[in-house]
Amino acid sequence: EVTTVRVQDPRVQNEGSWNSYVDYKIFLHTNSKAFTAKTSCVRRRYREFVWLKRQLQKNAGLVPVPDLPGKSTFFVGSTDEFIEKRRQGLQQFLEKVVQNVVLLSDSRLHLFLQSQLSVPEIEACVQGQGPQTVTEAILHYAMSNCGWAQEEESRP
């Protein structure tokens, strides 16, 4: 079984305003039975990764959860450099997470990677309080084909 996960295409949202942030495209391609959709493409921001790491730690018991790149407020160097370092760190984090059987069993991870639900919507869905089951939410997003066409077009 192969699972490829790539964090790419960082984009600054609300540039120039006090609430600007960077989000990243997460592209997943797999033949693993653990995943509902075999390909997906979503955009997530750093604080959503922080939430995911916390949830995985809560549910993983003694299984260590990989580290995220730091949240540096005193970064020396260019913003582009910082964003690229963070992108690489987020990719390494996800690569390690999807290789871990225990972490892979967490439905929050699947919704994070394979739906565009917000963090509160993911929580509601996992607790059975959303309008859809975890599988339905992932399949609904996969059927809407949101990020897949972009990914295909941007391939060389």
Automatic annotation (TrEMBL):
Pfam families: PX (PF00787). SUPFAM superfamilies: PX domain (SSF64268). Keywords: Cytoplasm, Endosome, Lipid-binding, Membrane, Protein transport, Transport. GO terms for molecular function: phosphatidylinositol phosphate binding. The keyword Nucleotide-binding does not apply. It is found in: Cytoplasm; Endomembrane system; Endosome. InterPro entries: PX_dom (IPR001683), PX_dom_sf (IPR036871), SNX10/11 (IPR043544). It comes from the Eukaryota. Belongs to the sorting nexin family. This is SNX11 protein. The lineage of its organism: Eukaryota, Metazoa, Chordata, Craniata, Vertebrata. The gene is Snx11.
